[in-house]
Amino acid sequence: MERLNGIEGGGVGANVDDGGCGSLDWETFEFGTSPKMDRRFVDSSDDGLGPKDVIGIPDNVLNNIPSNSITYRSYVEYESNIDDITSLNSIHAKAELSNLAPDVVRRSIDVLSPYVRPRRLERIDDVLRMRTRHARFLFENPSNPSNVYACLRTLDSFGIQYVDVVVTSSAYEGKAAMNQKRGMRTAMGSASWMTVRQFGNVDEAVRRLREEEGGCLIYASDLNPNARDVRDLIWDVDYDDDDNDDEGSGSVKTTRTSGSRGQRPICIVMGNEERGISEKMRALADETFYLPMCGFAESFNLSVATAITLAYMKAASGRGGDGVTTGDDTATAIDPDYGNVRGPLRPGDLDPHELQCLKLRGVLNSLAQKRLGKILLDKEGITLPKSLYKD
């Protein structure tokens, strides 16, 4: 975890002597020359004899099955079931972690910490202290696993802890889309330093964001005529202000009063690489925005758009008195929960229990051997959910 900031090696084309077949490692990953078919997004078996592929038919078999055959239709149904299971498991895993008793979390960290290098423990603490829960991202039906992986790495480097992904099975038609979707699951599963949930549809994702995640505002990247320039978005929206706002989508407003009950968190939505966001997401979003650009290209690559959006969010974030603006040059935003803080990126706003839970997961991920954590904790009579252990 010593190098979570920045991309090592110079990006595309760097260190690809192995033909893009190297390991999928969160901290040292470099992109190959054929990202859509990158073999590192295939889950390989420990014996090196081929893919485990417990989540689908191997590519070389799938590609030779006629699309109109019973076998292929059965596989499509099987893939849909796997999507549902992945969604349920990701939501359940987050709940299991947050529901751990504080004493169990503390004891577990105490037992495991002596088996992790002191430098790594310090780095885990340093990184988690810079995490934010006020802003999160959601990706709607992305198709390219390399794009997803690049987005996650960039989000990690900006301190984003929580990411959601909508995977609507029916949106992935054809063998190529199936292969890429399977690779995308591998990419999402590799983000062990972040909290990633998967949803099967937009309605469920937005419902949970609004009901369970502090009433998130939904700001979706879109090229519709009513979309705002990202620089004009209002990031500091008081709960009290928005509770009385009946004007509907595209009318987020704020008076930023000091008597506020706090400010609503923000979820940034990025759509599919080719189709963008869905009509459903467009209707549910509180705001839609675009990134200013010039040239003949109509849009940025997904991972580039994510990075640019984060850069604008970073520029609009800061602490009171530093001259940072938030879409209104005359506004002063004060969040009573976290002090004189403004903007979407608010490092250090995780609550103490949340912080310790994430530290426990980080310590488990840092053990030299996958099974060591369970062995050590079993000796002390501590039982943790299976979802906390690496496969």
From TrEMBL:
Keyword Protein biosynthesis attributed: no
Source organism per UniProt: Cyclostephanos tholiformis
Keyword NADP: no
SUPFAM superfamilies noted in UniProt: alpha/beta knot
Start and end residues of each stretch annotated as Disordered: 242-263
Keywords from the named record: Methyltransferase, RNA-binding, S-adenosyl-L-methionine, Transferase, tRNA processing, tRNA-binding
Biological process according to GO: methylation; tRNA processing
Biased composition (Polar residues): 251-261
tRNA/rRNA methyltransferase SpoU type domain boundaries: 137-310
Official protein name in the record: tRNA/rRNA methyltransferase SpoU type domain-containing protein
GO molecular function: methyltransferase activity; tRNA binding
